[in-house]
Write a structure and sequence with these properties.
The chain is an alpha+beta fold. The protein is 22% helix and 37% strand. It folds into four domains: 115 residues, Immunoglobulins (Immunoglobulin-like, Sandwich); 92 residues, Immunoglobulin-like (Sandwich), CATH 2.60.40; 91 residues; 179 residues, Sandwich (Jelly Rolls).
Length: 522
């Protein structure tokens, strides 16, 4: 069994080892859940607390980030020389709680959290020839902007809707709902793209079929932050026009007329057989009856022709109605490409080859002819476009003289120091202008009818995909004129919006288009 001295020695050794294990296990404490969440763009505290009766002045603490198989020192504090050192990617984004070192607070504040900061961190503290650490898992998340719903296309099978949202992390959940808050049964497609800042851009699409709930909700959910953002729209019934009852009535009349004609011809054929087989006396009676039947046939044929003419008139009215609806749909599609436009305050000079153009005073002794050039001070937008579709609106008010449109950048003139654009009409600019109450187009100096200009807001669509510029009367949703673009051979041509500026009059205003029409946000 051994001597009593041996047992006493063994008890002392075991007691010393258990005491060391207890102190070591409780040296650094961590929260019950070692995983914390940081919001991108904001700050987060990585917790690390030392449990000890007395912490000496000479100690060291360092935070280490585990990136795959590498270890990156985020920040280190050396109590001996009281200096703090940081990694380059964390420069200026970390700080210790120096005033709380003596009470065991070795936590690290991480500022301006990024998506790349996601991962595992180790807090390592050493003093009195001992080394202890704790592992913290950092998850990052971000709540993006409010989603926007756009009308993508209109077909007989339904309406195509697209929902777009940016600034989410990690990949969010996308849900389409109806007016009662139930998940819609229509199939949808979702695409998520990571932007340069490390956040996700979400684009989801679905087709709304006729007869379904016209209220649509697009909801974006961040399950990590337990938050969501949504947008709702109500689709107008105008997108699903019903068949006219007059068309049905005329189709019924046409069918009845055809039945009547078939009956009459059958009766004539029967009477003809009886006439061949009967005697001359009876034949006279049948001939009289045949003449009467022919009169009925003529009356039926006249009714058929009249019904057919009425049906053609109804078709013509329906065709005009659908053409007006298509024009409005084209305008709404153009307006869905709205972009904000700002102009430079410095004026530039445009040379117009059009009659009656608003401009500076001419020194010529004779009045301007049909092709006399005039110079006009204009304001050019800061933004230029080289591809895609872009729409903006200009408020011209009740001004008598104005000019607006698109001008193409000429690199050679800018290098030579010239500050104007010129040339033959349509080569370097595409514009509408108003002079003495009449509206002209730069495309062949074509005049626009006065009755088309009823309101004071004009829309401009720069379509570099189709190679054209469209001018709309925004309040009437009507196309005024379409001008083809003559694109050059240079791949980096830039097109800039512009509008006129005259002394002593109000300057036309370019204002943003915020909500695509006709979608109505609730």
């Amino acid at each position: 069994m051994g001597s009593p001295f041996w047992w006493l020695t063994a008890i002392h050794i075991l007691t010393f080892q258990c005491r060391s294990c207890l102190i070591t296990g409780q040296f650094i404490s961590s929260p019950p859940n070692s995983s914390i969440i940081g919001v991108i763009g904001e700050g987060v505290v990585l917790p690390c607390h030392v449990v000890a009766d007395n912490i000496p002045e000479v100690f060291s603490v360092q935070w280490i980030f585990h990136e795959q198989s590498q270890k990156i020192m985020v920040s280190r504090y050396d109590g001996k020389n009281k200096k703090e050192k940081q990694d380059e990617r964390y420069q200026g984004r970390t700080e210790f709680f120096h005033s709380e070192f003596r009470v065991g607070n070795m936590s690290l504040r991480l500022k301006n959290v990024r998506s790349s900061d996601k991962g595992s961190y180790t807090c390592a503290v050493s003093f009195n020839d001992t080394y202890h650490d704790v592992l913290i898992e950092l998850q990052v998340a971000a709540k993006g902007g409010v989603p926007s719903i756009f009308l993508r296309s209109h077909m007989k099978q339904g309406i195509g809707l697209t929902c777009h949202a940016t600034g989410w992390f990690p990949k969010p959940e996308v849900i389409w709902l109806d007016g009662q808050g139930q998940v819609r049964k229509e199939l949808s497609t979702t695409k998520m793209t990571m932007m340069p800042a490390g956040l996700y851009s979400v684009v989801t699409s679905m087709n709304l079929k006729p007869g379904s709930d016209m209220e649509v909700c697009c909801r974006i959910v961040n399950n990590l932050l337990n938050t969501m953002s949504e947008s709702r729209v109500l689709i107008s019934d105008i997108f699903f026009p019903s068949i006219s009852k007059w068309l049905i009535i005329f189709l019924v009349i046409l069918c009845l007329s055809m039945v009547l004609i078939s009956t009459v011809f059958s009766k004539l054929r029967s009477n003809h057989k009886k006439t061949v087989s009967s005697d001359l006396a009876v034949e006279d009676a049948h001939v009289h009856g045949a003449r009467k039947d022919l009169f009925l046939v003529s009356e039926a044929q006249l009714g058929y022709v009249k019904a057919k003419m009425d049906m053609e008139e109804v078709k013509s009215k329906l065709k005009k109605r659908f053409e007006r609806l298509k024009a409005k749909l084209d305008f709404w599609e153009a307006r869905s490409h709205a972009v904000p436009i700002t102009v430079n305050p410095d004026c530039r000079v445009l040379e117009l080859q059009v009659p009656g153009a608003p401009g500076v005073e001419s020194h010529a002794s004779e009045p301007a002819g049909p092709n006399t050039p005039s110079t006009v001070p204009i304001l050019v937008a800061k933004e230029g476009f080289a591809a895609g579709k872009h729409y903006w609106e200009v408020e011209v008010g009740q001004q008598q003289d104005w000019v607006l449109g698109v001008v193409r950048e000429k690199g050679r003139q800018e290098e030579e120091g010239e500050d104007s654009w010129g040339g033959l009409p349509g080569e370097d600019y595409w514009a509408l202008h108003r002079s003495q109450g009449e509206i002209f187009s730069s495309e062949g100096d074509r005049r626009i009818e006065k009755q088309q200009m009823r309101n004071s807001v004009l829309g401009v669509l720069l379509d570099l995909e189709e190679g054209q510029v469209n001018f709309y009367e925004a309040e009437q949703m009507a196309l005024m004129v379409r001008m083809p673009l003559r694109l050059g051979k240079e791949p980096a041509e830039m097109f800039y919006p512009f509008l006129s500026k005259r002394e002593g009059t109000l300057t036309p205003l370019i204002h943003p288009v915020l909500i695509p029409v006709p979608l109505q946000a609730l």
